[in-house]
Amino acid sequence: MKKTPHSTELTPEKLTGLSLEAPKEVAVGLPAVTSAMRHVFGAMDVGRGVKALLNLNQKDGFDCPSCAWPDPDDERSRIGEYCENGAKAVADEATTKRLTADFFSKHSIEELGTWTDYELGQQGRLAEPLFKPKGATHYQAISWDELFLKIGTHLKSLASPDDAVFYTSGRTSNEAAFLYQLFVREFGTNNFPDCSNMCHESSGVALNETLGIGKGSVKLDDFYKADLIIIAGQNPGTNHPRMLSALEKAKKNGAKILAINPLKETGLVAFSNPQTVGGLLGAKTALADQYLQVRINGDVPLFKALLKYLYKAEKTTGGVFDWSFIKEKTQGIEALLEDLEQHDFEQLIRDSGLQLKEVEEAAELIKSSQNIIGCWAMGLTQHKNAVDTIRELVNILLVKGSIGKPGAGTCPVRGHSNVQGDRTMGIWEAPPQAFLDKIQAQFGFDPPRKHGYNTVEAIKAMHEGKVGLFFAMGGNFLSATPDTSFTAQALRKCQLTAHVSTKLNRSHLVTGEEAFILPCLGRTDSDVQGDEPQFVSVENSMGVVHKSMGKLTPVSAHLLSEPDIVRRLAKATLGNTSKVNWDFLVQHYDHTREAIERTIPGFENYNQRVRQLGGFYLPNGPRQGEFKTVSQKAIFSINRYSPIMLSDTEYLMMTIRSHDQFNTTVYGLDDRYRGIFNERRVILMNQNDIQKAGLVAGERVDLCNYHGGVTRTAPNFVVVPYSLPERCVATYFPEANTLVPINSYADRSMTPTSKAVIIEIICKEKKN
Ligand SMILES: Nc1nc2c(c(=O)[nH]1)N[C@H]1C(S)=C(S)[C@@H](COP(=O)(O)OP(=O)(O)OC[C@H]3O[C@@H](n4cnc5c(=O)[nH]c(N)nc54)[C@H](O)[C@@H]3O)O[C@H]1N2
Ligand SMILES: Nc1nc2c(c(=O)[nH]1)N[C@H]1C(S)=C(S)[C@@H](COP(=O)(O)OP(=O)(O)OC[C@H]3O[C@@H](n4cnc5c(=O)[nH]c(N)nc54)[C@H](O)[C@@H]3O)O[C@H]1N2
Ligand code: SF4
Ligand SMILES: [Mo]
């Protein structure tokens, strides 16, 4: 096979030197504390480091820039209301290393493309605005005024506003997101692809269809009142580490935990609480009472098998279903029960990849519980039938009456710290008409009504040459999206690409003819407008809106806040034609919040309530047992599935996160809990599969996908034996994104199927 030449869009294929240990038996504890400190004090001096940590997640400090797990409503530890990965995120952002034009004059864009993501991230904070002119090989300095003039002029010159695409990542504050969507809609398009399209979009669709709101229903407090917590397709030990403290407390209060995950994840098995002396000395709490190592994408048959078992028990002994809830609050139980009759129990079990006995045990756990919380994340959302998978989990909660009462409900655990808030603010390619009506009434311009591009549609439109300008508010579009080479071709077809960013990433290296980098303030930075320090606000995974105030001195005087960037861009593009007083809105962020209050329901007395310590909860129907569906009832749904068939040489690959990364930001090369050190180009395989394929542990292989008749190759991965079902393999995102086909996405939500990619494994030695 021909060797693929390296191109700037792909992570270099060089290996860094794998070493393996047995996977850890317990998560967090002292090693997590030492790791957090090493990252923070490696990136900045002690004074800055201590200040950063003392303000992290405090009611008067800044919100953790990492995940969206909520803070406790009541008491917070003054010295440590954060986790190892929160500390790493802060270290990554608050580093005092700086990247100026001088650096870019020494390294061409092509050269930087040969660096790993880890190396790119280690260079420090972007410290001044940068420009790559047409035909140039390097970025160079540019003044802010000139930059906005160029981008604004370009936007004005497009044949249609729909020829521009405006991406958003989920770290953007409510204030910045509201202003951004306002500008883009006044400019005239709904082309708002966002990271949510690749993340919890399937949850939003499934929950809207069944419960009438695209958000979860539980509060943190519900964890402490639950009988059973189901955790499906989520790795909280790495991705939402403080959830482990909530799970520990839940267990102390008598809850059981059912984990559903192809991989044995340490963070679901046991936890040593670093906030307690015992935990630091190694005392541990066992977490999962039962661990179902379901086959990748085996969740629908599993959920159906569980429902069928419950139904049978209901028919024989009764007392399993909550009939008063079902009769009063739901619709469609008859059709669901009919559907269950159609399925063969044994076949469902086989399709889930599990044993009869373990599924029966899990069903017994559900049967004997009254208050159940269903948690899930990317292991359920990134499949072709993701929406149906989540709806089937909702069916389980509904038959048990486990929505709208304490200790029970839905818990899609969000990723980015403000991804939920960005959607509330209108970052949505398919905005509700009522929202647009409000914009029109408040601001006096006609917002576009036609739906815009989501992420997959935006990439395809760019690929077809339909997009002149791509603008990103944060994120790393190239590396986060599927089919990396295809997306790279798409971006290269734009005339202009621009990124508002804190750190250098691969998206800056795959450009349109002209390219811009707009360096901005981050969560940890103090943000002064006029003479007054400002705060912003964010919404966590449980619908709490609260303030976040950066405290650290920015590493450069050239950084602008995201709201100020939007203001300047709007003025440069819309000029006197704008109906919005941009200067006023940004002069003090209270003014932006007043505009939000007038436009979006649930934000009454925003400025006052956001100043309350801990913030306020947004209204949530299902939490109160109210369902804003057409019938005002919660809807039982019928969900079909067809097992993914594999030939003898094919495997089903999930792309997952290591412990040392935040999405495409790579903090380090280790995945401590899984016992994988100093290497990211690994493929985790069942030992039997390794043997059957004639491979050995440590061998180097190439991975291929052939979806749609196109050959996609990710070269040079090292085989690592791991506990996961046969024919199921795992690699890290973003190294393996090049294998995720652009045309493989979830029905109805269009989320790329990053957890179910059919691949072949090509042994390096044999192919020559
Ligand atoms: N430190 C850190 N924190 C993060 C992030 C990060 O990268 N680093 N990312 C943030 C973001 S944006 C998000 S969305 C979240 C992501 O949080 P997670 O969803 O926990 O992240 P993934 O690593 O994608 O893990 C998915 C889990 O699903 C399992 N899984 C895969 N396929 C299946 C399946 O078919 N069925 C079932 N039942 N399980 C499956 C995998 O084994 C894995 O344990 O974390 C957020 N927090
Ligand atoms: N194969 C595969 N692909 C996936 C996933 C997967 O599980 N598997 N997960 C998907 C998911 S869940 C998500 S959410 C997406 C993530 O997609 P994105 O949100 O696009 O990616 P991130 O890696 O989170 O973005 C990191 C960059 O954001 C910038 N940044 C950080 N903080 C700030 C800030 O405060 N302001 C601004 N303006 N910029 C900032 C930095 O420059 C940094 O390089 O990836 C998706 N892609
Ligand atoms: S759990 Fe998430 S939000 Fe909380 S400190 Fe850790 S990374 Fe930050
Ligand atoms: Mo995400």
From TrEMBL:
Transmembrane segments: none annotated. Keywords: 4Fe-4S, Iron, Iron-sulfur, Metal-binding, Molybdenum, Oxidoreductase. Residues 652-756 form the Molybdopterin dinucleotide-binding domain. GO terms for biological process: cellular respiration. Residues 125-496 form the Molybdopterin oxidoreductase domain. One of its GO terms (cellular component) is membrane. GO terms for molecular function: 4 iron, 4 sulfur cluster binding; formate dehydrogenase (NAD+) activity; molybdenum ion binding; molybdopterin cofactor binding. Its cofactor is Mo-bis(molybdopterin guanine dinucleotide); [4Fe-4S] cluster. The keyword 4Fe-4S applies. NCBIfam families: Fdhalpha-like (TIGR01701). Belongs to the prokaryotic molybdopterin-containing oxidoreductase family. PANTHER family: PROTEIN YDEP, RESPIRATORY NITRATE REDUCTASE. This is Molybdopterin-dependent oxidoreductase alpha subunit.
